[in-house]
Amino acid sequence: MEICHRPIAAIIAQDPKLPPALLRLFFHDCFVKVPPDPELNFKVNLDPVTPEVLDNQYYLNLQQKKGLFQSDQALATDPGGTQEIVNQMAASDEAWTKRFIKNMIKMGRTQVLTRDEGEIRLNCR
Predict the structure, then answer these.
(1) What pTM does this model have?
(2) DSSP result, 75-105
């Protein structure tokens, strides 16, 4: 979870108005973790078809109406918005890979705030 949380938090800090849907489009392979509880310690893959592969299957799942969350599935049904991005990413694994690499490099260039330069939230609600 920490691998995904820090880069996403850095991007949000740079542009707080960035739509959450766009972040989700590029970080779908991050896991959703249930709040800490010894009885409920499990993770859910957002791509149950190819969970161990970094590919565009997530977008194919959305086109087949197999999104894990309603908010994910909404990405594929937003005409004039994210629907076109979902269709582009589903159409070509190669195009998705190139776009993913480009955006990971972009995220790697973000300035991470440390110590007293930023805000660390325990609850982001």
Answers:
(1) 0.57
(2) HTT-TTTHHHHHHHHHH-HHHHHHHHHHHHH
Question: At 14, phi and psi to the nearest 5?
Answer: -70, -40
The secondary structure element, H or E, covering residue 43 is: strand 43-44
Question: b/e for 73-84, b at 16 or more Cβ within 10 A?
Answer: ebbbeeeeebbe
Q: What is the pLDDT of residues 50-106, one digit of tens each?
A: 888 889 999 999 999 988 888 888 999 888 889 999 999 999 999 999 988 888 888
Question: How many H helices and E strands in the chain?
Answer: 6, 2
Run of H or E residues at 33: strand 32-33
Long-range contacts of 30-37 (CB under 8 A, 24+ apart): 30/1, 30/3, 30/4, 30/5, 31/1, 31/4, 32/68, 32/69, 33/1
